[in-house]
C-alpha cells in the first residue's frame, strides 16, 4: 500500500507540474528555451488530465487531491481562452459604425486534397456575412480545375474591394503564399509588418480609411510546422506500436522546435511594430499556435480577442490531421467591442473560416 501512496503522489505532482508548465509557457520565448512550448501545446490535455485525476483521488479518498485542486484553481484563468459561454449579438439599437471581419486560411481552395464541393456554401456565407475586411492565408491560385473557377468567382464578387497581396508588395522577396487583405474601404498605405521567414510565412498590413478614421489591418501567417505524409504516418504509428522509429520521432520534434522558435521571432517583431503604430489595430491571422503559446500572448498584448468577447462553446479552428486547436484569430483594439463571433467549416480547407462584427465608437 505504501508503494501505491508514493505512486499516487508522484502522478499527482507530475500532472500538476505539467499544468504549471502550460500556465507559464506564454511568458517564455521558445527562441530561448524551446521545450517550454510543448507544455503550452499540451495545456488543454493536461487540464483535463488533472481534473480526471482529481476525481479519482476524491473517489479513493486520498489527500493528494489538494495538489490538483490548487493547480486547477490557478488554471481557471486560462480556460476562457479555450471555452466561452457569452455569445453576444449586436445590441439593439445597433451601433452606427460596424465592420464585418473574415479571417480564413483557405488551404489553397482545396488544391492539394479537395474532398467535395463546398463552393456554393462558401459564397453563400460571404453573402450572409457581407464582409468589410477579409484576411486570407494560403490564397494562391495553383491552377487546379476546381479552384480556378472559385478564384474567378471570388474576384468577380469583390472586384470593387481594395487589396493587399504579399506577392505584389515586392519583386525581390519570395512569395507569401497568398497572404492577402481585401477591404471595402480605401487603402492609403500597405507593406510588410515583418519578414522573419522571407520565403514562406510572413505578415502584411493595410492602413484603411473608415469615414474619417484610419485603421491598421494586419494579416499574419506564422511559421507552419510543414509536416508531410511520412510525419503523419509516424504519429499514427505511435498509437499502435511499442517500438517507434526514433529517427522519425526526432524528425517530428526537430520540426516542432524550429516552428516554435520561428514563430517566437515573428511574434516579437509583430509586437515591436504594433507598439510603434499610431493607428488602432485589427489583427487577423493563422498563428499555428494555441492560446497557451508565447506567440499568441506576445502578439495579443492588450488587444481584445473576438472569441473571448463574443464566442460560444469550445473553439477550434484547425480541423486537419493534427490535434484540433484554436489557432486562427481576430484581435482588435481594446477600446472597441466585437460581436457575433462564429466559425464555419468548409470541406476544401483544414481551417474553419472565422468571422465577427466590430463596433466602432461614433
If you had to describe this structure to a student in words, what would you say it looks like?
The chain is an alpha+beta fold. It folds into two domains: 2-77; 86-360, Endonuclease/exonuclease/phosphatase (Deoxyribonuclease I, Chain A, 4-Layer Sandwich), CATH 3.60.10.10. Helix content is 38%, strand content 23%. It contains eleven helices and 14 strands. Strands 4-5-3-2-14-13 form a six-stranded mixed sheet. Strands 6-7-8-9-12-10 form a six-stranded mixed sheet. Helix 3 runs antiparallel to helix 4 (65-75) and helix 8 packs across helix 9.
Question: Can you lay out the helices and strands and say which pair or pack?
Answer:
Blueprint: H1 2-24, H2 36-41, H3 43-59, H4 65-75, E1 83-84, E2 97-105, H5 119-129, E3 133-137, H6 147-157, E4 162-165, H7 166-169, E5 180-183, E6 187-194, E7 203-210, E8 213-221, H8 229-238, H9 246-276, E9 280-286, H10 294-300, E10 304-305, H11 306-310, E11 313-314, E12 328-332, E13 337-345, E14 352-360
Parallel strand pairs: 2-3, 8-9
Antiparallel strand pairs: 1-11, 2-14, 3-5, 4-5, 6-7, 7-8, 9-12, 10-12, 13-14
Helix pairs in contact: 1-3, 1-4, 3-4, 8-9, 9-10
